[in-house]
Amino acid sequence: MIKVELPLILINFKAYIEAYGSKAVELAKKAEKVAKEYGVCIAVAPQYVDIPKVAAEVEVPVFAQHIDPIGGGAWTGHVLAEAVKEAGASGTLINHSERRLLLADIEGAVARAREVGLFSVVCTNNPKVSAAAAAIDPWAIAVEPPELIGHGVAVSKAKPEVVSGTVDLVRKINSNVIVLCGAGIVEGQDVHAALKLGTQGVLLASGVVKAKDQEAVLRDLAQGALNALEKR
Amino acid sequence: MIKVELPLILINFKAYIEAYGSKAVELAKKAEKVAKEYGVCIAVAPQYVDIPKVAAEVEVPVFAQHIDPIGGGAWTGHVLAEAVKEAGASGTLINHSERRLLLADIEGAVARAREVGLFSVVCTNNPKVSAAAAAIDPWAIAVEPPELIGHGVAVSKAKPEVVSGTVDLVRKINSNVIVLCGAGIVEGQDVHAALKLGTQGVLLASGVVKAKDQEAVLRDLAQGALNALEKR
Amino acid sequence: MIKVELPLILINFKAYIEAYGSKAVELAKKAEKVAKEYGVCIAVAPQYVDIPKVAAEVEVPVFAQHIDPIGGGAWTGHVLAEAVKEAGASGTLINHSERRLLLADIEGAVARAREVGLFSVVCTNNPKVSAAAAAIDPWAIAVEPPELIGHGVAVSKAKPEVVSGTVDLVRKINSNVIVLCGAGIVEGQDVHAALKLGTQGVLLASGVVKAKDQEAVLRDLAQGALNALEKR
Amino acid sequence: MIKVELPLILINFKAYIEAYGSKAVELAKKAEKVAKEYGVCIAVAPQYVDIPKVAAEVEVPVFAQHIDPIGGGAWTGHVLAEAVKEAGASGTLINHSERRLLLADIEGAVARAREVGLFSVVCTNNPKVSAAAAAIDPWAIAVEPPELIGHGVAVSKAKPEVVSGTVDLVRKINSNVIVLCGAGIVEGQDVHAALKLGTQGVLLASGVVKAKDQEAVLRDLAQGALNALEKR
Does the ipTM exceed 0.90? Predict the structure, then answer.
């Protein structure tokens, strides 16, 4: 299992046709290559069934896209934290806007992730909800205004106040919690802006997965992160 | 519309056969009578369809059991805050353990309640989730360990640390938020204990609704509240 | 309670700002007036809290927009069939595309409607799902391709094969079940086409609720129904 | 990929601690061994992340516990049929009582399974719901009264009328659909009874997974199937 480091560029493969099965492994290998070249941590979140192969064949941190707030037992069709961990995952998204959870279940899923040693990234939609999520004490939150997801205009440009407002509120509530941001991230400038607003990384999907030249985009994102770090 | 005052005894009629239709009005009248005798605020939360009649015929604050995080529009089968308000409600429960919501929807429903002037009571299951709910800035939270609901052993006796832990965490996160507690409340002693632990009221259901002598239980609860206030 | 007759024009008020509270009563009165003038059954489905007032003040059949598959008990925020019935409703929608239910819960809700004497209208999205719903033995199904809802192009024009395909499949599975159709219905021609395709009524919402002249639209719809009947 | 044959004994690993990761492979190997000895088809349904390893290392048909009714796209945390298929699965459960789906989503998931070539087994709770599911045209339905799941009293003994009623109704609606039954199956006698009632297999979980001697139970189940076949 590969170390998760900050700043973090986390690529969500969703259920994209371009990023499951053997294509999941290929894309993860591009992430690995760029991560090594630039010294920037790039993690990937493939389909559940692709976690074992990606984790076995590629040196990048692997995240599940979701885990359930359950312990072992009679939970057909649910995702058991222990199974995800044994399959090679380092962490998990929780409450992505495409897989929202009940509040009590977010708390339960974060607790399960902690118990088995998975990094938990709770996705949120605005500063107030981010504050609520921070009170639950996950490893990180990732604020993503749903209306910007997949549209190619980065949250860090379109709604910088959502990002900085989240950073401020989360610091007040629970300063241990890392803040990422997502929605519309497609290039290095977006990562740069996100880090300048006080986040420690980005969560993105289509910007990389759907790119004609996935490796070029990954390079640009990594360079954006480096640029932001240098100026700190 | 009747004023909501603290301490608050809030009676949830759920979908109990003993408390819908004309029986909802009767039970609300018992609450009104006892509230006036003791000078303690007793509110009721009947079925949606019973809100107008209870609000029109009885002088007690009426709560909805749930509202949806929606504005006016194409939302068949959803509960519009404006409609609940116009029907005569003073407030609403949100996220009861029998009607859990997504985190983002809790935030949305609390915002809608505020916009139309409804008191919002967000139900929670433990201190951490209560802290998260408090970050969302509702009027009140009501902590209720689900395993104690309907079992006749009061949370204020069985798990006082859940109640006091919630009071402490909520005060840290957002001291404007009122804390109620529920689950297993059946007698005045339970109300007394709850208020002594720092709450400002209780939420209960079967303890009153299913009682042989509903009025006697209401009196006992009101007396419990008075006893706690006197000793403050 | 007013008799439900065929063909049926069922107006869903959803959570529209134009159709709750006193506006729900006003719109229902327009439906009553037109229904009496034309001798065509027009039913209305307002917000839950508006059911009692509409049922008390207007002579039209009133439908709930949803009921839950529950008996009396500890179901906070759920809609009890008995309460809806006592409030004056004649029937209920079930599984509207904006309030989809689990399959087992559709069966449960239809059973509850039957037990308390409510007409059940199960909404469906295509012929196969309509066939499945018919197997559950509701009073009626209403097929509505979700992509056409609220867009002003009637299903009976845009996708007549969905309507006739549903009529055929439902007849094979369970010929007792009435077929309605909805989505995009805005004028008398749409009703006419729907009845000619073998349905016994229509379900619509914005076409009436959002109309500048609601009464004129209601008249046009009723006339469309009459025209179709005359030519039978 | 191994052929799925009838009668079918389908073992659901759920999220049991005894059946994930390396233990999933071990249990699947016991199923393989017994299946070969007895010439009876035994399939397994492990956690999503365990599908690739089980499918690669063991010669038994592998089922997913659930797939989502989605095509490739922006569906974080959802299960893509194509990914499950490429990982080596032969089929999938849909709508298990622990993972119920909306009616429209059952239809969608069955369609997706068909498109990618996965056997679909739609779980149901009673004859009427089974009839509805059959109208959707899955490969099989598996009727399981939820109150009997995990309790060690077989549906084929405790409620034979549920099984035979389902067989009858499903035959009427869609005679192409295979009927399995589940809930409480723990021994060969239960399989025997199930097949005699007209089913073509069983779905079970704890009876095998939680058994002290898993292989002995698998042998007993396989023998029960053989006994029923001989007497046909």
Answer: yes
